[in-house]
Amino acid sequence: MTSATLAPDRPAAARRSARGGRLTRASGLGLGIAMLWFSLLVLIPLTAVVVTASEGGWSGFWDAVTNEQTAAAIRLTVGTAFGVTLVNVVMGTLIAWVLVRDRFFGKRLLEILIDIPFALPTIVAGLVLLSLYGPESPLGVDIHNTRIAVFLAFLFVTLPFVVRTVQPVLAELDPEVEEAAASLGASRFTTFRRIILPSLTPAIAAGAALSFARGVSEYGSLVLLSGNLPMRTEVTSVRILSSIENDNLDSAAAVAAVLLAISFAVIVVLDVIQRRVVRRG
What we know:
Helices cover 79% and strands 0% of the residues. It has 281 residues and is mainly alpha-helical. Helix 4 (57-66) crosses helix 14 (249-280) and helix 5 (68-101) packs parallel to helix 9. The complex is composed of two ATP-binding proteins (CysA), two transmembrane proteins (CysT and CysW) and a solute-binding protein (CysP). It is found in: Membrane.
């Protein structure tokens, strides 16, 4: 019996190792590099924010986030981001549906325009919005220094997220499944609710999470249009910057930690919702 027959086949051994839950050397190295990179970019900075926020103790943290001006900024930011996310879930899914299922003149141009908020610097977006909806608006619509301006700025920068997460999933759905459901007497609404929606829900939830997270952290697109008026149009990103400029890092870190906790909670809730929808579907 030769040594070749005694030695296990390496690919087969690797497959058995993977099935057994053990990492190969290459997989272990890749995992280590990935975790190191993730730690340097995400875990360590987030931990530093939480540690800085806790340096003043619980009383200092509570005083920072319950300050009347700070609390107003948090309510405005989170409430507006939540409302914008709901709009994006509906309109983003609708736009993705139109782009995938319909053919019309200018479709390619619309595909490009949707990605403009990704490519455009946010301060430039703010200048564009101010030109269109500011005191010298060519449209005759002046919403600067109002909460509507904050809502509009959030809508502009978060538009592509749901569209771009739903569109590829919708494109991969098999039309024959829908045709089979229709042939069995299912209505269009039933087909959408029982077949299409469960398939799209994970993508919608992912886009919604990205939309919300981008909204609560937005600064550049609204700093010119909203006016940053305390108690009225000031958002948390502006409030954090003001605290840093006043050399109050503990307060800035406390507000950032609150936003981090809210964003994490929203992501968890969206994950639970999409799992239940998929299971019921």
